[in-house]
Amino acid sequence: MLSVEGLEAGYGRARVLFGVSLEVPPGRLVCVMGRNGVGKTTLLNTVMGALPATGGKVTFEGRDVTRLRPDQRVRLGMGYVPQGHETFPQLSVIDNLLVTLEASAHRDQAAVEEALEVFPRLKPLLKRPAGFLSGGQQQQLAMARALVTRPKLLILDEPTEGIQPSIILEIEEAVERLHASGLAILLVEQYLDLALRLADAFLILDAGHVVRSGAAQDLRDEEVHRLLSV
Ligand SMILES: Nc1ncnc2c1ncn2[C@@H]1O[C@H](COP(=O)(O)OP(=O)(O)O)[C@@H](O)[C@H]1O
Ligand SMILES: [Mg+2]
């Protein structure tokens, strides 16, 4: 479904990604792990086209998307929830969802109801400005917005970072249900136990290189702990 080959990117002259390759097969959940600053967010931003690739290739459903704009990738079915749960803070919850619906390829109103079924906690909050929600609720709204576009692949950057434990569980369950429903997911997650519960496969980045990859059960070994410990 998603294939990344030899991806290179950086900021100005500072190179961050050094030939990163990964595959997300249809319906699979692949977890990208690694310490702070190793390039996880840079990888996702480059996969989505928010940052230009200086080398390598991104293929989505057999199509080379490396030179497409982010909105073009969204329309092809790549949904992205960036790190830090971005929403439109002045807009109400429902307007956050409707703005995304307007920009979607399908514009089917039913997609808003479907997204709210995944995050029922948002239903009583529809008229509230997004900026007034808690961090966890904003994360759910950011994920609901991505779902409104009816993605074939959902890309999530640390969806549980800095969020109160009660909502972490709800977010984890939502990711689990979406995965079970057949959605392909590329997840950046720093917590090993969460990754172990959710992922089919994983890769570990270190200083912009993939240093380990494998099936989720391989995450239990000693070297993995060494690569993830600070
Ligand atoms: N906008 C930016 N401009 C310059 N350097 C950046 C920018 N964003 C991230 N970096 C640097 O790129 C490296 C990787 O960052 P990032 O991809 O955010 O890592 P991670 O998500 O794994 O914590 C870090 O050294 C970081 O300081
Ligand atoms: Mg990051």
- Structural class comes to alpha/beta
Strand content: 25-35%
What is the overall pLDDT average? 94
Distance between the termini: 33 Å
Oligomer: single chain
- What is the CATH top level name? Alpha Beta
The value of Rg in angstroms is 17 Å
Number of strands: 10
So what's the overall shape? Answer: globular
What is the count of distinct domains? 1
Low-confidence stretches: none
* Name of the CATH homologous superfamily: P-loop containing nucleotide triphosphate hydrolases
How do the helices and strands follow one another from N- to C-terminus? EEEHEEHEHHHEHEHEEH
For this structure, the CATH topology is Rossmann fold
User: Which architecture does the CATH hierarchy give at level 2?
Assistant: 3-Layer(aba) Sandwich
Bound molecules: adenosine-5'-diphosphate, magnesium ion
How are the elements arranged and paired?
Layout: E1 2-11, E2 14-24, E3 29-33, H1 40-48, E4 55-60, E5 63-64, H2 70-76, E6 78-81, H3 93-103, H4 110-118, H5 135-148, E7 153-157, H6 165-180, E8 184-188, H7 192-198, E9 201-206, E10 209-215, H8 222-228
Parallel strand pairs: 3-8, 3-9, 6-7, 7-8
Antiparallel strand pairs: 1-2, 1-4, 4-5, 9-10
The chain binds adenosine-5'-diphosphate and magnesium ion (MG).
